[in-house]
């Protein structure tokens, strides 16, 4: 009986793996592991290509049902039928599919790149210039999407590993920190042609182009691979990460105002309130500017949603520890009077008064630190603001851009705004607010205590997975920080089953409905002893 490869529904893929070290192409060391094909280029240039998976017309990826590895050969059997035979040669991988389901359309594989392992490494797609893997989570998680014939990684030590693909293959590089996993994921979807005897994936350098056989299928202008939502192997169900900043924001920004200036009441607060932004005002309750507008500071400012912070009582000397603590206590008492509904003790921000002569400030840094801890005060970052540190509106806006680029906390501090002393002109101030407003989707605009609490809790927190199942996930979020003072909810991201479209998150008496996006849910959680339970929900209310 005559048999053809098309009748057997078989396709063969040959892979050649090369490294470039100091400009010299070398064959990589290949081996089979339980997870896939290991491409061994040394300590910081070793990667594992996941075993290939068939994808059907409904874009469902089949799972490996059984796997047998013997030396340089492996056999994979898939749920739903079909199998793949893998054989490693000196420099090549031969892969043959057989008895595949009739609706098989694609072959999928991926490289999982832990974020810690590729920091300092570079990547490139096609003929584009190399780019470094981002240190912080970027604005968009998709670093590259589309058809390109090559993907290349240059390790921190300079070892290049190039993966060359047929030009009809779709590839995607994404930053999975967006969904709570500390890794980058490179993926490709290659069309599956059962009637074609051979196609080639090449791993190597451009001078290996001759290895692509003439029998390769013609280029497909628009590959049938999805751009975003294709199911792909990912972290285990229940895998959870504390996001770097509240609500998964890219960076943090704070606006702080010193000296109880009247221009804060007249100019700054109305503009902040108009935009729904928070500012923190460092007051001196024993000084004239505060006393002249005391009713406004005590009633109107808290009612507008603004925060008051400790700048000492009189903005004057501290001849000894007792004098210093007396100034702090009087100021804190006034702040507490302005917020009668807030618990005590609680953390309050402290900003040291400037412009005081050294001979009138006789407490040491260590004494200041001890007194602040005793009185539950947290010293803010060093003053940084116009017109002392920035000489134009453009320089102020650059401070915001720098916070976004680094993914860290940025701040601008002010004295007078459109009046009083050390004045920031109103057009500068409005430009700053407009810039922040335009970037609210990426910036957590907050106060110094909330930033400090989140940062402290995040660093002191641990997550334990108690149960990870198709119908329920249970977690424990613990934190070593004092819960009486550090009680800000953290934002968690948890991997859930792909069938979940929405999720009910329960912690104690708190219930929250959140959407599932690409198999991940984000939600607030309070560190402590109360379990977090996630269950599928019909919809988000």
Write the layout of secondary structure elements.
Layout: H1 5-8, E1 11-16, E2 18-21, E3 24-27, E4 29-32, E5 36-40, E6 46-50, E7 53-56, E8 64-70, E9 73-78, E10 83-88, E11 92-98, E12 104-114, H2 115-118, E13 122-125, E14 131-132, E15 142-147, E16 150-154, E17 160-164, E18 170-175, E19 183-191, E20 198-200, E21 240-242, E22 251-258, H3 262-275, E23 280-283, H4 288-292, H5 294-303, E24 307-310, H6 321-338, E25 348-350, H7 365-374, E26 377-379, H8 393-406, E27 409-414, H9 426-438, E28 443-446, H10 448-460, E29 461-468, E30 473-479, E31 490-495, E32 502-507, E33 510-517, E34 520-525, E35 532-537
Parallel strand pairs: 1-20, 22-23, 22-27, 22-28, 23-24, 25-26
Antiparallel strand pairs: 1-11, 2-3, 2-17, 4-5, 5-6, 7-12, 8-9, 9-10, 10-11, 12-19, 13-14, 13-16, 15-18, 16-17, 18-19, 21-31, 29-30, 30-35, 31-34, 32-33, 32-35, 33-34
Please outline the major beta sheet. Answer: 8 strands, antiparallel
Strand content: 35-45%
Shape: elongated
Low-confidence stretches: 1-23, 196-235
Q: Output the strand order for the largest sheet.
A: 21-31-34-33-32-35-30-29
Q: Give me the Rg, rounded.
A: 30 Å
| N→C terminal distance | 63 Å
DSSP summary, beta strand count: 35
Quaternary structure type: single chain
How many structural domains?
A: 3
Mean pLDDT: 84
């Amino acid at each position: 009986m005559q048999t053809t490869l098309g009748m057997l529904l078989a396709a063969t893929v040959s892979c050649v793996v090369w490294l470039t070290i100091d400009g010299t192409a070398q064959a990589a060391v290949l081996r089979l592991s339980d997870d896939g094909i290991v491409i061994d280029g040394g300590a910081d240039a070793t990667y594992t290509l996941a075993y290939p998976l068939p994808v059907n017309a409904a874009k469902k990826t089949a799972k490996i049902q059984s796997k047998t590895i013997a030396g340089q050969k492996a056999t994979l059997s898939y749920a739903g039928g079909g199998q793949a035979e893998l054989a490693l040669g000196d420099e090549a991988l031969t892969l043959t599919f057989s008895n595949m389901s009739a609706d098989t359309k694609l072959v999928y594989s991926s490289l999982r790149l832990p974020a810690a392992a590729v920091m300092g490494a570079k990547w490139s797609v096609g003929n584009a210039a190399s780019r470094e893997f981002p240190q912080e989570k970027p604005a968009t998680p998709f670093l590259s999407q589309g058809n390109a014939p090559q993907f290349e990684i240059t390790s921190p030590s300079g070892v290049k590993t190039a993966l060359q693909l047929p030009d009809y293959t779709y590839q995607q590089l994404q930053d999975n920190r967006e969904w709570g996993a500390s890794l980058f994921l490179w993926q490709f979807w290659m069309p599956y042609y059962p009637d074609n005897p051979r196609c080639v994936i090449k791993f190597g350098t451009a001078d290996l182009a001759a290895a692509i056989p003439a029998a390769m299928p013609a280029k497909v202008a628009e590959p049938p691979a999805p751009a975003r939502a294709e199911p792909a192997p990912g972290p285990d169900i229940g895998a959870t990460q504390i996001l770097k900043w509240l609500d998964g924001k890219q960076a943090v920004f704070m606006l702080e105002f010193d000296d109880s200036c009247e221009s804060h009441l007249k100019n700054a607060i109305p503009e902040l309130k108009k935009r729904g932004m928070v500012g923190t005002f460092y007051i001196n309750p024993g000084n004239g500017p505060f006393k002249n507008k005391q009713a406004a500071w005590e009633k109107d400012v808290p009612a507008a949603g603004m925060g008051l912070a400790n700048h000492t009582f009189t903005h004057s000397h501290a001849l000894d520890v007792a004098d210093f603590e007396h100034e702090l206590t009087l100021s804190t008492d006034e702040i507490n009077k302005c917020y009668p509904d807030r618990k005590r003790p609680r953390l309050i921000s402290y900003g040291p008064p400037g412009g005081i002569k050294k001979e009138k400030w006789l407490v040491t840094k260590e004494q200041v630190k001890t007194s602040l801890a005793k009185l539950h005060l947290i010293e803010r970052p060093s003053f940084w603001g116009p017109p002392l540190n920035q000489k134009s509106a453009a320089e102020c806006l650059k401070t915001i851009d720098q916070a976004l680029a680094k993914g860290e906390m940025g701040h601008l501090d002010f004295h007078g705004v459109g009046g009083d002393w050390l004045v920031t002109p109103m057009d500068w101030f409005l430009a700053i607010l407009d810039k922040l407003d335009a970037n609210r989707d990426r910036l957590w605009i907050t106060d110094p205590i909330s930033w400090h609490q989140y940062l402290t809790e995040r660093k002191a927190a641990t997550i334990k997975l108690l149960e990870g199942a198709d119908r329920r996930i249970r977690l424990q979020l613990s934190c070593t920080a004092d819960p009486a003072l550090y009680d800000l909810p953290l934002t968690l991201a948890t991997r859930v089953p792909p069938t979940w479209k929405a999720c009910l998150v329960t912690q104690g008496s708190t219930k929250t409905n959140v959407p599932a996006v690409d198999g991940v849910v984000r939600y607030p959680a309070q560190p402590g002893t109360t379990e977090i339970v996630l269950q599928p929900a019909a919809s988000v209310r």
